[in-house]
TrEMBL record:
Keyword Signal: yes
UniProt entry tagged with the keyword Signal: yes
Signal peptide: 1-24
Keywords carried by this UniProt record: Signal
Lineage: superkingdom: Bacteria
Protein name per its UniProtKB record: Uncharacterized protein
Amino acid sequence: MKSTRYGMLAVIILALAAAASGGAADTVATAVYAKIGNGYKRAMAKDGSFKPEYYALSNGGLIRGTMNDITVDRVSYRDVAMLVIPLLDQQSYYYAKTKEQATLLLVLNWGTTLAPNGVHKEMNVAAARAIMDTLTVAEGDANAARVATYESEDIGKNSAAGLGRSPQWANNEEMAAHHTAVAVESQFLQLFNDDRVRDELNQHNARVLGYLDELADSNDIRRWAGGGDRYNDLLADVEESRYYIVISAYDFKELAKTNKKKLLWQTRVSVRSPGNTFDDSVAAMMRSAAKYFGQNSGKLVRGEETKGTVELGELKYLGEAKEVNTPAPKEEK
């Protein structure tokens, strides 16, 4: 019996998959979006199952503009790979033993999105409101100063002296009002900049999480015509930090030949970060995503997935195991 590293790893992977599929009844709310492109279509066998496809696996790390936290750092590439491989097996995607066998390159990305700085914006709004109040008082003082100046010109110098105010007092009040107006303008520019940054970050997060199409579809007259709060609900998701996993499938042959990435399919899954940890949610996220590997979800699919319990320990030798061979599909007559 031939001992192979692949066979040994397969035994451990299957054990992890069994652990991930059972366990506690604790659930997590997931959101999945999957899309195929560039003419990709899975070939079907006579029995209605998918014909086997073979892939190489790669670590894509963090997507630019996202971050990690301590719970993300606790999960290694090996951990993620060992969770996704048996789920890919269930969809007739098999790990290639040689580069010649591989037709797909699967790239794994995971991390957490950045939430817009809402507190910073609220502070700016409060500051702008305070300055507006100051401006109102300053403008009132400036108007009073102008009236006093006009009276001094019409009635005579003694009139202004009688009021206890000089023309210089009027100039000082007008200067104070001017400076306050400049401060208000600066504050509103800051608010505008906050909104611009917030919109850019929201768009980036929506793209990473797979919310972009759904947001665009729900951003229409229905928002103001009794169509519900779907747009606002989606936007609230995007503006909240979320853990994500993205599985991207590229044409391996095309990449090896031309060094150009041709994206064939992509599956994105996420859960909200507040109240969850990545290491506790990664198995549930992968199971939700696996249902749509190599397929179109058609829309953003939101649902509940059991977390289960997964022990990610050191690689251990469990003895000899037969090399895993995928049976070739029968010839179609």
